[in-house]
Amino acid sequence: VVELGGKRTQKPGRAVALTVKATTENVWVTASGRLVIRGSRRTHRLQRVEGKFIAYGQTATLKLKLSERALAAMKDALRHDRKVRARLKLSLRDAAGNVSARAWTVALAR
Question: How crowded is residue 70: how many other Cβ atoms within 10 Å of its Cβ?
Answer without folding.
Answer: 22
